[in-house]
Amino acid sequence: MTQARRTVFGRIRRIPTAYVALWIIAVICLVAILSYFDFPFTRYAFDETTAQVLASPSIDHLMGTDELGRDVLSRVIFGSRLSITIGIVTAIVGFLIGTIYGAIAGYAGGRLDSLMMRIVDIAYSLPDLLVMILIGVLIGRGTFGILLALALTSWRGTARLVRAQFIQLKNEEFVEAARAQGQNHVLIALKHMLPNSLGPVIVAMTFTVPAAILAESTLSFIGLGLSPPACSWGTLASDGWRALRTHPHLIFFPSSLIFATVLSFNFLGDGLRDAIDPRTRL
Amino acid sequence: MLSFLLKRILYALPVLLIIASLTFVLVRLVPGGPFDAEKNLPPEIVKNLEAKYNLDKPVHEQYFLYLGRLARGDLGVSYKYVNRTVNDIIGDAFPVSLQLGLIGLTIAIFVGVPLGAIAAVNRGTAIDYAAMFISTAGISLPSFVIGAGLIFLFGIELKILPVALWESPQHMILPAVTLAFAPAAYLSRLTRASVLEILEKDWVRTARSKGLSHFSTIVKHVIRNALVPVITVLGPITASLVTGSFVVEYIYAIPGMGRFFITAVGNRDYDLIMATTLLFALLLLLTNTLVDIGYKFLDPRMEVEG
């Protein structure tokens, strides 16, 4: 496993876009984590007293200030916490639900499988926005509500993928051998089948992170996601939209960060896919 | 072909019924009702309103009443836009979204598919990297950012295109481009992957060794076969484009369907939610049927199940 991991990383290093993307993601995540400590920029995020309002970018305020005189760079760094957290947590929760669900369906097969897959079909046929709005009404539009809504729409793809993998693996000789030895079903699924099906799932997970960041920012933009005082790149861009004509810097910087992060995750996903399985290309 | 279509219609009816039932239950499970927004309505008036719209009856009775009206083609009334039936609202808004969606779809296909094919044919060259960078960027930009960028550039700085409303062909350019961006990027990635896969097939080598030129091999043999997965995703893409994008309609102030769906859910405008959801489901079934017919043209050997 360690050997495999080393070769995957080695291949990633040889794909320039993926390697640069990995570094960009690392830096953005590091800044988001550092902002929890006494980081020079975060102090100004809610400081309304120091500066002039709606200043254009300058040496003092690299990204300018907003309508309350708050430093936009600080706000953007502050917003990265929520945006990145939402992206990663959604991917992990969607991965866990989808993997368990898909593994059970694929391993069990037969009637249980077709029942579980029909449920996935129905979950797919409901408009995502309807699900998200309904969750928002039921749970509230806080961070938890958004996370739940995004996780509920992201597990379905993983479930299908893992199920397909498990159906393929079920007839492999090593699985049959484990079964012939009388090993416990759960153990077979966990120890023999899961590690062998993880490659494509991890690739899919890498694409879930940017999708969730995009979904959060779009929901917040149209007023169905987070709203102030919560601060994410989506809410910042939404604030900036209203001042597009007069102060375009307010929407430019948070949008650029969304773009850079999502682009990096997509390039990393492409690279991982090529590194893990060079045959599949989409 | 006739029996195929007949089978599809027979299959569509129960699917629509399930989706209608599920949505019906879901929207009524959510707390709050259509008359909550007017805070100062006396309870007696709310009661009268609910009686008028049959909302005081048990849910299962409302359900059968609704299905009865639906069977007669009556989509109900809007509680929010008084004096307007849902049929009126859809009749006004759907043509706008349909027109915008079809223009966007055309742009997406004619930009995305050639871009992906060119990238695949020139695999590993600068052309390929440039095309893939553009398309990855395209799927990484939220549509409100694309919209804001286009409005800023063409509407505010250059002042050559109108940035809002839906009046003349000029008004359609920016929203259609904004709408087309993401599907164009997605189609080009899909086309590239598909063309690369086909290029490795034995019969492509055969065609080349027969002396067919590189160009005609690509056009006559590769593209046609590579389009199968592209056609597959066109079903859902078309359905979602023509039923309207909330973001695009919101930023360009376009009176289409996308806006009604969001506001209808917020207002608990039950009949309007039902109508928009069902219209989407219907279009999805319709476009997927068209996709299956498309398969038969691309590859007559393909067995399409009814």
Short description:
The complex is a heterodimer of chains A (282) and B (306). In chain A, 73% of the residues lie in helices and 0% in strands.
Secondary structure blueprint with pairings:
The complex is a heterodimer of chains A (282) and B (306).
Chain A: H1 2-13, H2 16-34, H3 72-108, H4 110-125, H5 128-139, H6 143-170, H7 173-180, H8 185-221, H9 233-241, H10 249-276
Helix pairs in contact in A: 1-10, 2-3, 2-10, 3-4, 3-6, 3-8, 3-9, 3-10, 4-6, 5-6, 6-8, 7-8, 8-9, 8-10, 9-10
Chain B: H1 2-29, H2 43-52, H3 59-71, H4 86-121, H5 126-140, H6 143-157, H7 169-199, H8 202-209, H9 214-242, H10 246-251, H11 257-267, H12 270-298
Question: What do you see in this structure?
Answer:
- The complex is a heterodimer of chains A (282) and B (306).
- Chain A is an all-alpha fold and 282 residues long.
- Chain A has one domain: MetI-like fold (Orthogonal Bundle), CATH 1.10.3720.
- Chain A has helices at 2-13, 16-34, 72-108, 110-125, 128-139, 143-170, 173-180, 185-221, 233-241, 249-276.
- In chain A, helix 2 crosses helix 10 (249-276) and helix 5 (128-139) crosses helix 6 (143-170).
- The mean pLDDT of chain A is 82.
- Chain B is globular, with a radius of gyration of 24 Å.
- The mean pLDDT of chain B is 85.
- In chain B, helix 4 runs antiparallel to helix 5 and helix 4 (86-121) packs antiparallel against helix 9.
- Chain B has helices at 2-29, 43-52, 59-71, 86-121, 126-140, 143-157, 169-199, 202-209, 214-242, 246-251, 257-267, 270-298.
- The longest helix of chain B is centred in the middle third of the chain and has 36 residues, at 86-121.
- Chain B has a domain at 86-256: Orthogonal Bundle (MetI-like fold), CATH 1.10.3720.10.
- Chain B has twelve helices and no strands.
- Chain A binds chain B through residues 17, 122, 125-127, 129-130, 133-134, 137-138, 210, 214, 217-218, 221-222, 224, 237, 241, 244-245, 248, 251, 255, 258-259, 262-263, 266-267, 270, 281-282, and chain B through 15, 18-19, 22-23, 26-27, 30-32, 133, 136-137, 139-145, 148-149, 151-152, 156, 189-190, 192-194, 196-197, 246-247, 250-251, 261-262, 265-266, 273, 277, 280-281, 284.
